[in-house]
Amino acid sequence: MTANQPDPSPELDELYRGFAEELLVPLWTEIGDLMPMSPSPAMRPHAWRWKTLLPLAEKAGELVPVGRGGERRAIALANPGLGGAPYATPTLWAAIQYLRPGENAPEHRHTQNAFRFVVEGEGVWTVVNGDPVAMRRGDFLLTPGWHFHGHHNTSSEPMAWIDGLDIPFVHYTGSAFFEFGPEQVSSTETPERSRAERLWAHPGLRPLSQTAPAMNSPIAAYRWEHTDAALTDQLALEDEGHPGVVEPGHAAVRFTNPTTGGDVMPTIRAEFHRLRAGAETAPRQEVGSAVWQVFQGSGTVRVGEAEWTVDHGDLFVVPSWAEVTLAAATQLDLFRFSDTPIFERLHADRVRVGGQR
Amino acid sequence: MTANQPDPSPELDELYRGFAEELLVPLWTEIGDLMPMSPSPAMRPHAWRWKTLLPLAEKAGELVPVGRGGERRAIALANPGLGGAPYATPTLWAAIQYLRPGENAPEHRHTQNAFRFVVEGEGVWTVVNGDPVAMRRGDFLLTPGWHFHGHHNTSSEPMAWIDGLDIPFVHYTGSAFFEFGPEQVSSTETPERSRAERLWAHPGLRPLSQTAPAMNSPIAAYRWEHTDAALTDQLALEDEGHPGVVEPGHAAVRFTNPTTGGDVMPTIRAEFHRLRAGAETAPRQEVGSAVWQVFQGSGTVRVGEAEWTVDHGDLFVVPSWAEVTLAAATQLDLFRFSDTPIFERLHADRVRVGGQR
Amino acid sequence: MTANQPDPSPELDELYRGFAEELLVPLWTEIGDLMPMSPSPAMRPHAWRWKTLLPLAEKAGELVPVGRGGERRAIALANPGLGGAPYATPTLWAAIQYLRPGENAPEHRHTQNAFRFVVEGEGVWTVVNGDPVAMRRGDFLLTPGWHFHGHHNTSSEPMAWIDGLDIPFVHYTGSAFFEFGPEQVSSTETPERSRAERLWAHPGLRPLSQTAPAMNSPIAAYRWEHTDAALTDQLALEDEGHPGVVEPGHAAVRFTNPTTGGDVMPTIRAEFHRLRAGAETAPRQEVGSAVWQVFQGSGTVRVGEAEWTVDHGDLFVVPSWAEVTLAAATQLDLFRFSDTPIFERLHADRVRVGGQR
Amino acid sequence: MTANQPDPSPELDELYRGFAEELLVPLWTEIGDLMPMSPSPAMRPHAWRWKTLLPLAEKAGELVPVGRGGERRAIALANPGLGGAPYATPTLWAAIQYLRPGENAPEHRHTQNAFRFVVEGEGVWTVVNGDPVAMRRGDFLLTPGWHFHGHHNTSSEPMAWIDGLDIPFVHYTGSAFFEFGPEQVSSTETPERSRAERLWAHPGLRPLSQTAPAMNSPIAAYRWEHTDAALTDQLALEDEGHPGVVEPGHAAVRFTNPTTGGDVMPTIRAEFHRLRAGAETAPRQEVGSAVWQVFQGSGTVRVGEAEWTVDHGDLFVVPSWAEVTLAAATQLDLFRFSDTPIFERLHADRVRVGGQR
């Protein structure tokens, strides 16, 4: 309760009743919660374990068909601070999606921005605006807002991956539009590389036929081989005494839109981090929330008061302004996504590195 | 409930229990609510009447002191769809603030962006980063994020005005910071024009000492005389057969940041509209929510299914994508603010004029 | 001649002849001139006197008709370093234009950006894309590239003013297009304010019917009353101990495009400066060239090695990187335009204030 | 001579003498040349032959030492329309540079933007701000303004390549600064890839340690293998019926700054074009001038009234607004650079494709 409240009295009670009747609320009783000294979000740090998630997804694969209506066999992380809503953070959705051999997730489009990250496996093609995009281990794949997309599994093995979207943000702010597309994916081709990559995934080059800035990255798939090479190069540069890493023992890349140099989609930032065995990051706080997934290796993570040992496939979430520290037991590779572009575009971003002084 | 759900079975029940235990939620049961075909916000259209608001504010003036702790004698509109929270819309705060003769609202600063709009009265100076800004009828006054500000009433009359902020958005997304300033306003000067206006409120001119773009408008006060003149000019141009008005009989201006030409603050758009007596606007839908206040005149407003006759000082709120129509009984002047810059900066803005076809 | 040249020899002579035959030039003989240590432009500082210019313009008024073909009775400053070309600087054109009672300068349009500045007199309307714009003492008036424009003198007195354009730059870089319009101006109305001003010259306000950024300022006329008020305000703020002036005793404004906050046209910057009697500016060097005109008052100007006493109407030109100092004998008001936006947009701008250290 | 001149008379002669004495030039006698209906640049289309250039460069290698003072053994194309100045176009410099085994071109920096393109050979490293960059056949290498750079040949063979700079533009506009660096290159390492490439030449990825937009591309070298792959992909997409090529049989990429998606440097655009054997481009006109070099293959080029058969290494220049058509005899690969960013940044760009209608 906010300090320095007026003394209780019958008149005050009557005034407060009047407020309630007229759909009014005084600031002076609420300001402490509404306007805290620093962000105090309802969401809580939490970790989900891959070895728990995957069997539940497999079981859903047996019991729940995929098709029109439910649209996707996706199981979302529900932050324990957010009242049971399927929200990893107030702004971000994170789910494990599961597709069995021969299955097809029907095409649709929506204003929510989406991506996939593949922690293991392969055999699914996601078809984005008619362009078939192979999904393979370590790849980061985009489905920007209002792009039609569906998935199908052409292999003899099931495949699971992670979906990231801005569903909670779009829901809260009221900007959701949705349209159904065909029930079967519009292309069943299975090329190694998408047409988008063939046009756009050449370093520093763009097709002369497309020279305007685009609000979303046209690179449909960021392949693991490139991400791995970039991280390897950064650590080699550090070994040689040259700049490049974020901090000692910590290489990282941001996935970007080659038409602007900015984030891949307007609301979502995506990054890949690699820590050398034994490295530890400086404590870092940032306005905005994030979801991390361990790609390979193991280590210890502290988020605010929470601490977990994490391993392959584990996911954890970071509230706004919570302090994060990573310590690598082995070489530790992590995928991260966050809502930071929202704050940067609204000039509300803040970062503090090195902890409370 | 979303269509095409799997048939109930004990295994499915067990699976769903497993989800709940592990803080997981399936998409296929929630997608209908989460990802609607078009925005279906929880907030509802609603109107608050000035003749109800003002007496409650006056009563609060008698019973509730203003000072450190409660900080402001502000009474917020609580949208009936938002569970009692003091939110006019999911993103916007709107409140009546009331200051009695000789009172002082202590200085503080916060990352929330704020403004005042004066529907009647005068006699208060708001002091923004040390610059005293007179508040008078029809004026629109800025307190951008992280600017220190306090108010004091130097007159012998109480004064009421409207505060607009992005408190709900900042609260939801977790980006609030707050600091206390001095308990007494840092300047008790009462100049006609603020220093900010003297530097910046000259049409098309900027001081050579400040040539970089600024994230917020440096114009502390947009005076009624300028707003009124601009609206008058637009209607005169229409009379002479020249372009300028938005649509027949409907003049409007946007308050802008002269260093960029864009909105006054990163999250808030503010506009002033004037309808000739008898004019009616085309139905308009827009992503994002808005708050309107009648400045003078009367007319009829339709927002989605709701319809009200509105008069001086009345406030009403518009949910995302709800259709709005205004019809002027007399010349009708309205102030409007909205969260549209959030959507424009995130490329999620959409507008439809002319209704569902 | 550049240092360290190869020793002369018959073979070298033959090589150099071979170069010449094949339209080739070696860098090693030219680098000293081509790539100097700091800008060493061919243009020279020079001053033109109003009391000389005006009688020549009057005489031209008697002898030279104005009409299609010659298009304008404009007499350009020809920098003594530029080989007789009608260029005030390598990039900028400055001319005195003269129109007698009842005369009409036919409409045309061109990609060159143009403006007028009125050092004295009134009675001419310039018609820009059909909008009649009164020209009065102290006004700064725009004719951006590809806008049709003509002038006519509706008064019983002749009128002279200054034209500024980017003709030399456009000529050198090869980007000139030109079209003839009607021989008589397309509107003979003589309103006090142009339609453009009525829509746009309200501080911090823009018409809701035009919300996109525009490459040129839509304000057709920047009136002296606003410029004068802004300068007066800055000096008053200085008297009161507040920031605002550029340096002690030196107030200045930049004319801006209200849709962007940037310069009025893509290639031309325009400013107005006021020095208190007795004030002296710090030495300033800037990449790019400039033209100044004294509006009122008198003082001493140093540009590089040159020094002049200047008075009402006098014009002087400043080469790139030449050091400029102004000293005011009386209150000294000056209009200035420059090509700085070219360098800023190409990231080639540099400024040094305070002289060579 | 411009039409409709005043009749000759003694008074007119005297007036014109008065103009000349006072360094004034009338517009009405010059407007036809100064403000043409469309660009009519002084520069002329011209082609230089590699089989002529290379022997002259070799001969210069014998006779002219490279070192401090002359700085570079570079031989510039001197456009026949530009009075003997070493300018390929009014804005662009193009030269063949030649370095013999063991030679070293001393380090310096200048505000002129520079690049190298390698039509054949290898064995030189250019050291840019201390980072050694291997130069190999087909590579495009950057030395943006104010970066220190020198070259040294570590091989047993001489090497020739093409330099492109904005020297004429910088000279004309007066924005040149220059500084000497060490006489010997600051690093004699000979890595396969530069540090810049290791950090930046990964498609769609940027190092998290450098997230701000940069005015120049940080990619020091655009390697032929990537350019070739991108062009090959475009033609394959065309074969499969998908979009990507500029026009039938014509693939092309633009070299870009990955931090912005824009051109590699503020004043210079660089592209690579590939025509299938037998393909012919649509006639194209563009504001701004360009230099092309044939990388491999042969064909016919028309530029305005000129027409040449071109082959490996040949260079040709295109004036502003001249119509260009390319016809490929064999598969034809061409490198192109132009000054288009200058016009785009100043909103003076225009393009016409398909010829005069």
TrEMBL record, chains A, B, C, D:
GO terms for molecular function: oxidoreductase activity, acting on single donors with incorporation of molecular oxygen, incorporation of two atoms of oxygen. CDD domains: cupin_GDO-like_C, cupin_GDO-like_N. Residues 97-163 form the Cupin type-2 domain. Keywords: Dioxygenase, Oxidoreductase. SUPFAM superfamilies: RmlC-like cupins. The keyword Oxidoreductase applies. InterPro entries: Cupin_2, GDO-like, RmlC-like_jellyroll, RmlC_Cupin_sf. The keyword Lipoprotein does not apply. This is Cupin 2 conserved barrel domain protein. It comes from Amycolatopsis methanolica 239. The lineage of its organism: Bacteria, Bacillati, Actinomycetota, Actinomycetes, Pseudonocardiales.
